[in-house]
Specification:
The protein has 437 residues and is an alpha+beta fold. It has helices at residues 13-25, 44-48, 78-84, 87-96, 115-129, 183-190, 212-215, 253-267, 286-298, 305-308, 315-324, 338-349, 404-436; strands at 2-9, 33-36, 57-58, 70-71, 101-104, 107-110, 132-134, 141-145, 152-157, 160-169, 196-201, 205-207, 219-230, 233-245, 249-251, 271-277, 351-358, 366-370, 388-390, 398-399. A hairpin with a 2-residue loop joins strand 9 (152-157) and strand 10 (160-169). The longest helix has 33 residues, at 404-436. The chain is elongated and about 100 Å long. Bound molecules: flavin-adenine dinucleotide (FAD). Residues 9-15, 36-39, 44-45, 48-50, 54-55, 138-139, 170-172, 175-176, 183-184, 365-366, 392-393, 403-406, 409 line the site of flavin-adenine dinucleotide.
Length: 437
C-alpha cells in the first residue's frame, strides 16, 4: 500500500491548483502530495478553454455581489470564499509561477494567448514542488479506514492501493466530455453527500420550427428573452450580445448565459420560450422604430418584399420572417399585403420560438448542480466526512461565460489545498504534543 499525505482526485484546473496550494501551505516542506488523474494527461479540458486561448478569470468580478456572476442554491457562501482567494490572488499566483497575462475588456488570458501556457505553468510548478502526478488512474472507490496506522482514505486505483491522510475531490463534471460519467459525483455521494441533479449549462438551445436550416450560419447582435413557465410560476430573463443561429436553434454567448435557466425549467417539466429581438438598438427608442415602420409602409407601394425589408437585418432572417407571414420575397407591396407586412416588421422585433431542449453535456462548458455548498465549511472541508475536501465544478456553482468558471476552480482548489495541508500540520503538532505530554 502506498501511504501519502494528501491525495487529489482529478488533475483538472481545481485539482492542479489544490496541489500547488497544498505544497505552498506546507511549512515543513514534507507533505507528500499525489494527484490521481483518470485520463492519459492532466488538464485536458483546460486546453479547450476560451477556444484554445483560456480565459482564466475576469477583472469585472466583484466579491460584493458574486450572485451576479455565479448561480448556486447557496450563493451566500460565495463572498467568503472569494475573499480568501479572488481574482487578484489568481493573477498574483500565476505571476509568481512565471506566467504573464493580458486582458481584453476585463477578460484575462495568458499573454501567449495559448491555453497550453496555463497548463504548462501549472505542470512545471508541480514538477518543481515534487508533486507526484499519476495519469491513467481512474478512482472508482474510496473508503475511510479508521484503524490505527491505516487511518485515512483508502483509494484503489490504477492497480494500486493508496492511503491518504487528507483527500481532495476535484473530479469536475461531464461538461465538454464525450462520455457522460457521473463517477466523480458518485465518489462524493458514497461519503453521504447530496448531489443536486447535474444539468448542462453554458450550452446551445434546441428549438422547435422547420425554418432553422434556412437561418443556419447567421451571426447578429440580438436581445434574447427567455419566458419560463411551469408549476404556476412565470419567470423572465434576458441577455444581449452576438446571437448565432444554427440548423437546430440558437447559440452564442447570450444564449449560453441563459441556458442554465432553460435546462432547469425543461428538466422540471416547464415550458420555455425564447423571444428574439433582431434589432435591439431600437429598444432605447421605440418611437423611432414605429416611425420607420410607418414610413416604410407608406412608401412601399409596389416594392418587392426583398426591397422593402432590405438592409434591416441579415437577409436569411428577412426571408424566414417573410415566409412565416405568408409572403414571398418577390411579392409586391399592395394594400392587401399590408397586415402581413406589418407582421414581418413585428416578427423582426419579437421572434418567438419554443425551446425544446439543450444540447447534451458534451456541448456544454459547465454543469449546473453538484454538491451543495451547505455541505462544506469555509475551508471546503466536508461537514459529513472530516478530512475530505471538495473543489471545482463538483460543487453546486456554475458561473457566467467570461472566465468565471475557471476562477471558481482556482478559488476552490486553492482553499481546499491550503486547508488540507494546514489541517495535516495541526494533527501532526497535536500528535507531537501528545507524545511529549
Ligand atoms: C469547451 C470548454 C471551454 C471552456 N472555456 C472556459 C473559459 O474560457 N473560461 C472559463 O472560466 N471556463 C471555461 N470552461 C469551463 C472550465 O473549463 C471548467 O469550469 C473547469 O475546467 C472546471 O475545473 P475542475 O477542476 O472542477 O474540473 P475539470 O477541469 O473538468 O477537471 C476534473 C479532472 O478530474 C478528472 N477525473 C474525473 N473523475 C475522476 C476519477 N474518478 N478519477 C481520476 N480522475 C478523475 C477528469 O479527467 C479531469 O481531468 C470551459 C469548458 C469547456 C468544456
Amino acid at each position: 500500500m502506498r501511504r501519502r499525505d494528501i491525495g487529489i482526485i482529478g488533475g483538472g484546473a481545481s485539482g492542479l491548483m489544490a496541489a500547488i496550494s497544498a505544497a505552498q501551505a506546507d511549512s515543513f516542506n514534507s507533505c507528500k502530495i499525489t494527484v490521481l488523474e483518470k485520463k492519459d494527461r492532466v488538464g485536458k479540458k483546460l486546453l479547450a478553454t476560451g477556444n484554445g486561448k483560456c480565459n482564466l478569470t475576469n477583472l469585472s468580478f466583484s466579491v460584493d455581489n458574486p450572485e451576479q456572476y455565479y448561480r448556486s442554491q447557496n450563493t451566500e457562501a460565495l463572498s467568503g470564499l472569494f475573499q480568501q482567494f479572488g481574482v487578484q490572488d489568481t493573477l498574483n499566483q500565476f505571476r509568481r509561477m512565471g506566467m504573464l497575462v493580458m486582458d481584453r475588456n476585463g477578460y484575462v488570458y495568458p499573454l501567449s494567448q495559448q491555453a497550453a501556457t496555463v497548463l504548462d505553468t501549472l505542470r512545471f510548478t508541480l514538477e518543481e514542488q515534487g508533486t507526484e502526478v499519476v495519469t491513467d488512474c481512474a478512482v472508482e472507490r474510496i473508503t475511510f479506514s479508521g484503524t490505527g496506522r491505516d487511518t485515512g482514505f483508502l483509494v484503489k486505483a490504477g492497480g494500486e492501493d493508496w492511503l491518504f491522510q487528507r483527500l481532495i475531490l476535484a473530479c469536475g463534471s461531464m461538461a465538454g466530455e464525450k462520455k457522460v460519467d457521473y463517477g466523480g459525483y458518485a465518489l462524493a455521494k458514497a461519503f453521504g453527500h447530496t448531489i443536486l441533479r447535474p444539468l448542462p449549462a453554458l450550452v446551445q438551445l434546441r428549438c422547435a420550427g422547420s425554418f432553422w436550416k434556412g437561418l443556419a450560419g447567421v451571426r447578429c447582435d440580438a436581445r434574447i428573452q427567455l419566458l419560463i413557465s411551469g408549476q404556476g410560476t412565470q419567470e423572465r430573463c434576458e441577455e444581449q450580445g452576438e446571437l448565432q443561429l444554427t440548423d437546430y436553434g440558437i447559440s452564442g454567448i447570450p444564449v449560453f448565459q441563459l441556458s442554465r435557466f432553460a435546462a432547469a425549467a425543461l428538466d422540471a417539466g416547464g415550458q420555455v420560450k425564447a423571444v428574439i429581438d433582431f434589432l435591439p438598438g431600437f429598444q432605447e427608442n421605440e418611437a423611432l422604430w414605429q416611425q420607420l415602420v410607418e414610413e416604410k409602409c407608406a412608401s412601399c407601394h409596389q416594392r418587392s418584399m426583398e426591397v422593402l425589408f432590405s438592409g434591416l437585418v441579415n437577409k436569411k432572417i428577412i426571408q424566414t420572417a417573410v415566409k412565416l407571414c405568408g409572403l414571398h420575397m418577390e411579392d409586391r407591396a399592395e394594400r392587401k399585403n399590408l397586415p402581413a407586412i406589418k407582421k414581418v416588421f413585428a416578427l423582426l422585433r419579437s421572434f418567438e420560438v419554443q425551446v425544446t431542449d439543450t444540447n447534451p453535456f458534451a456541448n456544454a462548458q459547465v454543469c449546473a448542480g453538484g454538491v451543495p455548498l451547505t455541505e462544506v465549511d469555509a475551508h471546503l472541508e466536508s461537514r459529513i466526512c472530516p478530512g475530505l475536501y471538495l473543489a471545482g465544478e463538483l460543487l453546486d456553482v456554475d458561473g457566467r461565460c467570461g472566465g468565471y468558471n475557471l476562477q471558481w476552480a482556482w478559488t476552490t482548489g486553492y482553499i481546499a489545498g491550503k486547508y488540507a495541508a494546514l489541517s495535516l500540520e495541526k494533527t501532526a503538532r497535536q500528535r507531537e504534543k501528545g507524545k511529549r505530554g
